[in-house]
Every structure is written in C-alpha cells, then in structure tokens.
Amino acid sequence: MEDAAVVPQEALDAVVEPSPDTAPPRVRIGTPVDGEDVLASLSPSRAGDFKTCALMYRFRTIDGLPEAPSPGAIRGVVVHKVLEDLFDLPAVERTPERAAGMVRDAWDFVLDAEPELAAMFADEPESKPGPETGPERGPGPETGLQTADWLASCRKSLQGYFDLEDPRRLEPAEREVYVEALLDSRLLLRGFVDRIDIAPDGSIRVVDYKTGNSPGIGFESKALFQMRFYALVIWRTRGVVPKLLQLIYLGDGQVVSYRPDEDDLRATERLVEALWRAIEDARRSGEWLPSPGAFCKWCSFREHCPAFGNPLPPLPVVAVPGAAAPQPESATTTAE
Predict the structure, then answer these.
(1) What is the pLDDT of residue 324?
(2) How far is the C-alpha of 211 from the C-alpha of 84, rounded, in Å?
(3) Is 304 helix (H, G, I), strand (E, B) or coil?
(4) What's the rounded Cα separation, in Å, for the pair 13 and 180?
(5) I need a labelling partner for 308 at 20 to 30 A (CA). Which of 56, 96, 235, 323 fits?
(6) Are the C-beta atoms of 280 and 187 separated by less than 8 Å?
(7) Which residue, among 184, 163, 44, has the nearest Cα to 99 in the 3D structure?
(8) Helix ranges restricted to H, the chain
(9) Contact, 40 vs 303, CB < 8 A?
(10) Is 65 exposed, middle or buried (0-12, 13-18, 19+ CB in 10 A)?
(11) What pLDDT score does 136 carry?
C-alpha cells in the first residue's frame, strides 16, 4: 500500500500483549510476526468502531481519550472471568451455585488490576490501600449504584448462561485465547476469542459470550462481523474453517449461530482490508467524519464531537511518523 507506515513489532507487542501486572496470562497462538515488517494491526473491536463512526475510532485509537467505566461493560469483564475460571474446576463442580460464589473473587481480581473502577459505586473505596496510595479514601461518588446490587446482576447473567449450556458436559480446547494472522497485505489481524471447542473429528466451534441482549432482527451483522473476523484468523493460521460460530447472549437467553464457508471468509478478508484502506485514507486526509445515529447516546466522546456542536480537538502527534498509533484496549472497551 502506497505511503503506508510500517509500525515496529515492539509497538505492536505493547498493544497486543497485556501487562502481567494487569491481566492473567493468555495463550498466544497464530502466525509469528517477530522480525516481520507489518503494515499495522487491527482488532475486530477497532474495525467495528470505524464501521460505526470514523471519529469514534479516531478518539479511541489515535487520541486515546479517556472513557468513563460503564457498569454494564465491567459486568461483562467479571462474567467473562468467571466463565473462564469455571472450566478450571472438575466437571462435577461446574454448577450455578459454584459460579455465583466466584463472582466476588472475579470482581476483586478486576479491581486489583484497575482500582479506579471502584469509583462507579457509592459504597466502594475509590482506591485500595497500598504503599503508593496510602489509606483508603472513603466512598466513591454518589452514583446510587450499590456493589451488592451490581454483583447480583453479575450472578443473574451467569444464571442465564446455565440456562443455555451445561458446562459439566463441555471441555473447551482453549479459553480467552489470543489469535493473530498476518495477511498477504502485511495487515496483522488480532484479538481474543472467548472459547474454542474442538470436536473429536477436528471440527471447530468458536464461542463468544455477550452479557447484553441479542440484537434485533436485521441488526446481527455487527456481532457476526466480529465472529467472521475470528473465523478468518483461525482459518488463516490453522487451515481449518470453523464449522460453527456462536454468540451466546446472557441478557435474554438467545444464541445466534452461523456456519461460515471459505467464500464467506474470503469476503470478510476483503472487507477488513477495505476498512484498513479507508482508515489510511482518513489518516492521510485528516478527515475523521462523525456518523450520528442511535448509538450516540452511549458514546463517551460527545463533548468532543462536532455533531453535538462541540469543537473538534486537534489531532495528536504520534510517535511513528505517518502512523496512526494504536492504543491498548482496556476492560472498559473490550467486554460487552
């Protein structure tokens, strides 16, 4: 691609590899890219951001503007942690009661990594005591949200999972696994898959948990794009097209399933590369246009958005000349 910036591998490693101090170790598989020049890296979340609104992509990925934590998003992080750890138990112990009892420990794990999340609640300390923070600073802001009520909502989401699957009958091949694939265009696709199941005949099922409700009829494409993205990466790295993609919606107890084929994944690859060309065009022109819509009421960046009559902040200076420097994905933007 003409005039494209080459991002050093160490810059990518800073994005795709979570700090051992802030995240559990995750298995890394896929195409080795050490020593390779890559055009850039793209995750399904960031690709989805650009599809939704180019300006949101800029604010989140290039500017790295802060986003207030959402109780709904953090609920997703906690529930994902419980569902990951649940399969470490012997099959007979994978019960709704045991999962419910794991919620508080999962929240403490998340809070240890991001103590500022306590500020979401009226009854949690804003930060935990320690050698740098000193004593606890008292309760968080008067949000009215109580920790016990929110933890109960996490347990309710988990009960929704047990209504759909019996984990005592499942032995996932991989959980919370990092996958990556380097395309011929030198674009690196990357992301974390919630669960991969492999049948005795080698068939692959890719599973993603969503703590919200399933999309309405005609609105499934955004969620299925994420799953096709993962299927493409797995196909390119393992040579096997996943037999089944499943989105498990814990909010309303629905399962959305899709069976991809090679033609479908080739089309997904063309779409992803077209998205990256559009991102590069926006970078060169400096035109990151907003796309006002229903999603705006959930957007964290309205105070910076010209669609709401606000001045557009100047583009930041990035470390790599000509490159849109990607930002690490935090818990507040990756779980749903």
Answers:
(1) 42
(2) 14
(3) helix
(4) 12
(5) 323
(6) no
(7) 163
(8) 9-16, 44-52, 54-57, 71-86, 96-101, 103-113, 147-162, 221-238, 262-285, 331-334
(9) no
(10) middle
(11) 36
Residues of the chain with pLDDT under 70: 1-36, 124-144, 218, 318-336
| Structure tokens, 330 | 């935090």
230/265 Cα distance (integer angstroms):
10
The token duo for 308 is 């709401």
Per-residue model confidence (pLDDT) at position 332: 43
DSSP character string of 76-93? HHHHHHHHHHHTTS-GGG
**pLDDT at 245 (0 to 100):** 97
Q: What is the DSSP letter of 119?
A: G
Label the pairing between strands 254-258 and 244-249: antiparallel
- Count CB atoms within 10 A of the CB of residue 111: 18
Per-residue model confidence (pLDDT) at position 31: 45
Determine the residue type at 78.
V
Which two structure tokens, joined as six digits, stand for 172? 């996932």
At 122 the pLDDT is: 82
Report which of 28, 42, 51, 105 is spatially closest to residue 329, judged by C-alpha positions: 42
Place of tokens 């590369």: 273
Report the alpha-carbon distance of residue 167 to residue 91 in Å, rounded.
7
